[in-house]
Amino acid sequence: MASGRPSTPPQQPVSSNSSVPPPSSLTPEQVKRIEINRLKAKALRDQREAEARQSNDAATQRSGRSNLAAGQKRAYSAIATSNVPATLRDGRCKDPAKNGGFRPLDDIQPARNFTKYVEYDFSKMTDTKGGFLTAEDDPHNKALHAPNAEEKPAHMTLKEWERHQLLRSLRDRKEGPFEPGLSVLKREENKVCRECGSLEIDWKWDEIFGCAICNGCKEKIPEKYSLLTKTEAREDYLLTDPELKDEELLPHLQRPNPHKSTWNNMMLFLRYQVEDYAFGKKWGSAEALDEEFNRREKDKKKRKEDKFKSKLRELKKKTRVDAYRRSRKAGGGGGEFGDEIGRGGKHTHTWGRAVESAEGIEVKTCVECGMEVEELGF
């Protein structure tokens, strides 16, 4: 069916024998000339950009500012480590003037106040749930890694450890192979027991207390050579802690606490040395020590009585107030404060003579109600 709409005519085939080129095609000479011009323009643009970058870098080093426009990238040479300016302040830079090399973190020296600072990696540590670090996680703690003398070392067998403990015990007591030798040629220089003259003295006591005594005499004469604890010396002889801690004044022997191993060691004193100091230097005699002991006991008893009386007075006052409040609630005829309880009318105090109390204050007491008031005379 024919229609009135115009149609596009079919394209005419181009004859292969035609020698006339199409109007839009270029000859090889023209294409070659265009490519040469393009390469020349690109080379010229690169040369101008290089000159601009060099001038920009020189101006930046002189003034410290960049002349690049907003959005324009810096060249790689401007940020490369091979061309680092001398004014660059970078903690990683080892020597900015020499090729800008980077140094490792181990070469960074800490500040003077942080020389003992230890940095821990918490991601590799064990959470003990107790607020402390284990020995494996805290290698810088000398207390955790200090050798414990009470524990058997790993390189020792059980027999070697027992022998080591025995030798250490003998060394401390100065017995066996560690006992000081006796000279046959110089008998006058040998130390003997101060009681029986025996050569078998306790060298440990001689070293600590300066007392040459044998074990037999220690057991025979306990009233002189028995040991006193720190509590006994303080309570029985009224000595103070500074006096007991002074080793030049009163030497003492330390022993593990028998009540609990984690408590402090016991301080043991020689009885006759404590008595010589207490009776001879501090109190003068045993009678003076007894008097001081009785005086302190009386003062202690008086303080207890005063404390009891003070509490009793407070209790009486509280009882009176409670009785008054109960009578008011029950309607037992009580009136205002100061009225006589159980009777009509206002109570009038009848004061007795002023009596001087133990504190030196004059006190008057009401004859009827027992109320006390203090008077100060000027």
Primary descriptors:
about 375 residues; mainly alpha; three-stranded antiparallel β-sheet; about 5% strand; flat
Describe the fold and architecture.
With 378 residues, the chain is mainly α. It is built from 11 helices and 8 strands. The strands form 3 sheets. Strands 3-5-4 form a 3-stranded antiparallel β-sheet. A hairpin with a 5-residue loop joins strand 1 (93-95) and strand 2. The longest helix is centred in the last third of the chain and has 45 residues, at 286-330. The termini are far apart.
Spans with pLDDT under 50 lasting ≥5 residues?
A: none
Please summarize the sheet with the most strands. 3 strands, antiparallel
What is the global morphology?
Answer: flat
Determine the fraction of residues in helical runs and give it as a percent range.
25-40%
Number of helices: 11
Mean pLDDT figure: 77
Order of helices and strands: HHEEHHHHHEHHEEHHEEE
Number of strands: 8
% residues in beta strands: 5-15%
**How large is the radius of gyration?**
53 Å
* Assembly annotation: single chain
**By helix and strand content, what is the structural category?**
mainly alpha
The strand order across the widest sheet is 3-5-4
| N-to-C CA distance | 146 Å
